Amino acid sequence: MDEQLAKIRSGELKLYALEKLMPTDEAITLRRKYIEEETSSDLTPVGEYTIPIDRVVTRNIENMIGCVQIPIGIAGPATINGEYAKGEFWLPLATTEGALIASINRGCGAIRKAGGAEVRILRDGMTRAPVFAATSVAHATEVARWTENNLLLLKIAAEKTTHYGELIGLTTYVVGTSVFVRFEFDTKDAMGMNMATIASEAAAKLIETETGARMVSTSGNMCCDKKPSAINVIEGRGKSIVAGVFLSDELIAAQFKTDAQTLLEVNTRKNLVGSARAVSFGFNAHAANAIAAIFLACGQDPAHVVEGSNAITTVDMVPGGVYVSVSLPSLQVGTIGGGTGIATQQACLSILGVANGGENPGDHAKAFGEIVATAVLAGELSLLGALGTQHLAKAHRELGRGWTADLRQ
């Protein structure tokens, strides 16, 4: 190993090329040893892992030196009355935030006692939006009109690149001499970002050939991927899902130690008025918490928590209690591809019964989306209750107390 380390230091060996020269486990060990020496760090903990690594280093990571482990807890079961997810589901959640799983677990209990959450998918389409340069505004308009009038030709070109993906629509936007084409794809059980990118590139080449416009970038940020955006709130991206549950006055009192009017006021003043005053895209209590935890556990792209947090929580007064709902316009999830094939993440998808592709392409991803929406609903219910009874700080003191001990050391 000393000889190989010397070659790395001299530049004769490149860190990124080690897997081509030696077995994968040896390459990772050598790379980790080099970084330990370079940074005077002890990386022994990240070198201990159980996941099979051959697939990981070819599909999920470059320059691997080990793994960071995140604790996984379980909440539930959550009772779901969806169109694809039906029954009781234990929710695997990966997080380092004390009190989060306890909170979601309490919300799951309320949903279960209420008879289950109603969940529906309103829209399902992954987007990619190439940007083209035209020669004038007249030319830009011609490009947009040709594109809008030739969806079938573009569909044929795009779908030659994929076995399962389907181009289901497009919208054009002209800004001066820039033309954006926001393609929308049904990507079945895959989250589908790579699928949409490759298919969009093929369609874009046809637009170039037929209109004389020049494609500047496969992504023109009108997609809009991994960034806060109004377009994803309004038009949706990935799966647009709503989930709701009726809570009786008796259930609110027993489960949350508060009442319907308090839940309504907290939601109105915090989630609606407070978010509006802050000009936030998220009108919710902490939707990103549940989304991030289940994304990490189940191999989703954690950067898509950005779009997932574009959620709106509503509380309606109804006879005998309240109806609480969450609307998630841009939830991007999949059960094949990306991190879903890593052994530990696939195990968590197996807990939910949605690992790999469904018998009908797309069914597993849709069921998973309904489960994620229910987890968000559970988290919202619990935090609204905690805020209504002034118990939020108390819960963090009791369940997220590790930091106080750290301060005393």
Summary, kept brief:
The chain is α+β, with helices and mostly antiparallel strands. The chain is built from 17 helices and ten strands. The chain is globular and about 70 Å long.
Model regions low in confidence, pLDDT < 50 over at least 5 residues: 402-409
Number of helices: 17
Largest sheet geometry: 10 strands, mixed
Distance between the termini: 38 Å
Index terms:
single chain; about 400 residues; alpha+beta; 3-hydroxy-3-methylglutaryl-coenzyme A Reductase, Chain A, domain 2; Alpha-Beta Plaits; ten-stranded mixed beta sheet; globular; disordered C terminus
Written account of the structure:
By secondary structure, the protein is of the alpha+beta class. The chain folds into three domains: 2-59, no CATH class; 73-124 and 239-408, 3-hydroxy-3-methylglutaryl-coenzyme A Reductase, Chain A, domain 2; 130-217, Alpha-Beta Plaits. It has helices spanning 2-10, 18-21, 24-39, 54-59, 100-113, 137-149, 151-159, 193-211, 230-235, 249-256, 260-277, 287-297, 305-308, 343-352, 363-388, 392-399, 402-408; strands at residues 72-81, 86-94, 117-128, 131-133, 166-175, 178-186, 214-217, 238-248, 312-318, 321-331. Strands 1, 2, 3, 4, 5, 6, 7, 8, 9 and 10 form a ten-stranded mixed β-sheet that branches. Helix 11 crosses helix 15. The longest helix is centred in the C-terminal third of the chain and has 26 residues, at 363-388. It is globular and about 70 Å long. The model is unreliable at 402-409 (pLDDT under 50).
